[in-house]
């Protein structure tokens, strides 16, 4: 972790050099440069835990920081309604409750359910009669004992009744009633609504005794098996993304837990705030996740080799990054560090080709102790 020291001032370090009377500019610069050093004995080095090492070549990734939320696709959000409407007789659902597929969600009542069952049984009885009449007229017509007109009318009535019975049967199935098991003794004024999925109750819109129409939604259910991450990425960064790219998501409520994901869809629609929706699939589903939860995410946009030092070798001072170059014999010089990406405990250094800083050895451990020693020395002076 980089250390921020606000109380230390470069001018303080170079105070003695600045107080020299009327030195040439070159001399002042040389004196200042030599002042930004710290000398430790062998014992002090051991006590401070100072270790040195050269720059390493490691692959680092550029990371894009974005925000978003957990979401479910349209097919994962189920709205439960009643095709013919009715009164809610009974329901014990509350938001957040878990439901299993086939579980009874509610019991509905209405006289139209009785009427529909009655119409079906009556139509089915009439169909049996018309079927027999059709067969009889067909035989009479073949023996010329009945006219073609009578036979055709009987046939038309029979076919129309078949259509009516089938239509009524489908209406019963919409209500969850099995027409094949319906009889005079099984007529009921109530129906049951069953859960079409295994999931959770998101919202409840009704209470017992309330009358609902077919367009009313009684409950909303969520299928947790397909929760995904919906990220908002600024337009300028979209060209850095591609399908299959790895994403590390963290919920705002529990940032220590990481949810590995990958990009499955990049929207082509730009919102008014110049952002684009990027949908990511969780590599492992977690039933504890709640849709709508805000998340922070890191997207790895590129990977390349770079010169790095351990993260603890870099100290921050006066809003700048520094490292300590080893000059041998326990002498260290504080050098400004042109830092880049920090990843997995290592910090990238953007040093130009041919720079003598590339060949230096640096304090890889104990850099903060060196900074404190330098501060104390300057205060004593």
Structure description:
The protein has 381 residues and is an alpha+beta fold. The chain has 2 domains: 1-72 and 227-381, Elongation Factor Tu (Ef-tu), domain 3 (Beta Barrel), CATH 2.40.30.170; 75-222, Beta Barrel (OB fold (Dihydrolipoamide Acetyltransferase, E2P)), CATH 2.40.50.100. The protein is 26% helix and 38% strand. The chain has 7 helices and 23 strands. The strands form 5 sheets. It has a 6-stranded antiparallel barrel with strand order 4-13-16-15-14-17. Strands 1-18-19-20-2 form a 5-stranded mixed beta sheet. The chain has a 4-stranded antiparallel beta sheet with strand order 5-12-10-7, with no helix packed on it. Strand 14 (246-251) and strand 15 form a beta hairpin. The two termini are 29 Å apart. The relative contact order is 0.21.
